[in-house]
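Researcher: Going back to the complex we discussed earlier. I've cleaned up the inputs and rechecked each line, so this should be the final set. Can you rerun the prediction on the complete assembly and write out the structure?
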Amino acid sequence: MKADIILAGVGGQGILSIAAGIGLAAVKSNLYIKQSEVHGMSQRGGDVQSHLRISDKPISSDLIPQGQADLILSVEPMESLRYLPFLSKKGWLVTNTIPFENIPDYPAIDQILAEVKKVPNHIALDADAIAKDIGSAKSSNIVMLGAASPFIDIPFEKLQEGIRELFGRKGDEVVEANLKALKAGRDYTEKSR
Amino acid sequence: MNNLLLLGDEAIAQGAIDGGISGIYAYPGTPSTEIMEYVQASKQAAELKIHCKWSANEKTAMEAALGMSYAGKRAIVCFKHVGLNVAADAFVNAAITGVNGGLVVLSADDPSMHSSQNEQDSRFYAKFAMIPTLEPSNQQEAYDMAYTAFELSEKLNVPVMIRITTRMAHSRAGVQRKAVKQQNKLSLPSNPRQFVLLPAIAKVNYKKLLDTQAIMNTLAEESEYNRLIKGSDTKLGIIACGIAYNYLMENISSNVNHYNVLKISQYPIPHKQIKELYSLCDELLVLEDGYPIVEEMIRGFLNNGKTIHGRLDGSIPRDGELNPAIVAKALGMAVSEGFPIPEVVRKRPPSLCVGCGHRDVFTDLNVALQEYGTGRVFSDIGCYTLGALPPFSAVNSCVDMGASITMAKGAADAGLVPAVALIGDSTFTHSGMTGLLDAVIENSSITVIISDNSTAGMTGGQASSALGRIVDICKGIGVDPNHLKVLSPIKKNHEENVRILKEELAYNGLSVIIPQRECIQTFARRKKAERRAAGKDTD
Ligand SMILES: Cc1ncc(C[n+]2csc(CCOP(=O)(O)OP(=O)(O)O)c2C)c(N)n1
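Model: Rerun complete. Updated structure for the full complex:
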């Protein structure tokens, strides 16, 4: 088993909590993991990515080789396209459709989504709306994780355990909200595949 | 696999704690910052009473660590690569004094300049100072090296460098811990003059350092971190240093018995194994995440031996960090292709946060400077360096920490009047104060703006040594109180602030202006912590 995942977004959007959620699930499944993060300057509203590698065998490189990622999980549509050279021809692109516009020349969203649709295996969803619908507007990240979960070869229960541990400190209410978000995202993908 | 999932930085911190340190000294800098932060957050470190406060700069950190070593205890000092430039005087001389308690210098390099102004390679510094370097290839080695480096330092009577690069610092993997070692007891150096580098004593110490080189070589040859892995191919032999070993293995792990590979993670370079590899193969490929230091050493100036491939012959790009694809290409292997980046994708450079006080400082300053024209603002290193980019395009330099005040002074000496220096609070106490003294002594015609957000914002909001002290420091250095102004950089005060700036720009002498407003990030974090403490936060 191997899952090479690129997480993408804008500094401050919290892709590292998605990474932590998957990481905890991987550890609970007794898998090897390497996860490279971006700290520093680009966290100030620049583009950020994380390479997350999970495997049942020891992992060598901290970086995913180009053209070999199984999944790009992006919380921002334009950012989902930035790392396409890493995506394997058989890989999945899963992205939120709500743009984060902090540059003057941000392209028209239609153009971006048209490019997303050109990727043979893609799922594009309005995670913000889904999160709001279930009454947990802050959980759109975890909705995205749920939407990508069918493409990550880890039992769903382990992801749920990961979420419980990640948010446990913040109380039952927060844990439940995020479990709901995880499920809502997963349901979306299962329905639209 | 019951182990900890740690960043390389965190693995080093945990290794140092378990290895018996009594103190960690550091100044923040990407990608090294998380080492100190980990120790500061560690309950174990608190129980062990490990000293863990930020220093004013890397030189003060290096010297304090040396002082702790003098007193017989183990200390680690951490900074980013350019921090070693600041600490260099103390660093190089610490190799001559030698140590008492084990002393480890951690320098974190940033090839590809993700968050830095250059990609200098700290291994050169260690070679220059003639001390050993440990360069982990994975997080477990990072832990193990930090754990054992203090003993190596005590055994050899020199500081030991641990050199990491950005990917090692900021990548997480499982790490297995070892038993916690006792801290050393307080003890004076057995030779009371060991640390007195008068020429007569320094000469003796230096000879000792030279004599120790042979032992360092032997230890590197015997090190468990350096390994010659034999293969069947006698055409190409490969040397992989530090993290480059991972990128190599990513490509050849399905075929490990093919190449002869020398993994190097302890320096000085292991002569014996290099000679053996050289004799086994027709050509060598050197992989190192940084400058071609090993490549240059093996190739030599005359370059009249076997062919050596690497960064110098173009097999590997001359600059930037390594990755699996670069290594694959150098091995002549096929590289998988993904999808091209569509043209609609735009660059997204970092930018100042919405609600950041530096923004108002730039707006005020740009208006105040209109009558003088552009090209006279010397800036420094911090979030405010982003003022160089649109929409502000407000600053004209960023070189090294503290250079704003001194460069403005030099430009004013040359006749560029008024010249403006723009510096942050943490950078001011890091290395702006001494330059300000130069300007005070000559009453230089410069306007120094210390944009004070009460933190080291760029590196994530660490405590600033300047907190609550800037006005007193300026007065103490001798700034004329009539030209020392504190402002509040908010929209409402725009006109008033522009008026004050214009007045001071017109003054033919030294002015210091201190706009003060808390960093929006640390402000938000503080408020959240307060809400949580009051039990009101549910998020
Ligand atoms: C010699 C050196 N040490 C450390 C750094 C890393 N560094 C860059 S900016 C910065 C903090 C600057 O803080 P401050 O001057 O208060 O400005 P702010 O970012 O808060 O606006 C640090 C520590 C560096 N670039 N060079």
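Model: Worth noting: Chain B has three domains: 3-222, 227-330, 357-523.
Researcher: Good, that matches what I expected from the previous run.
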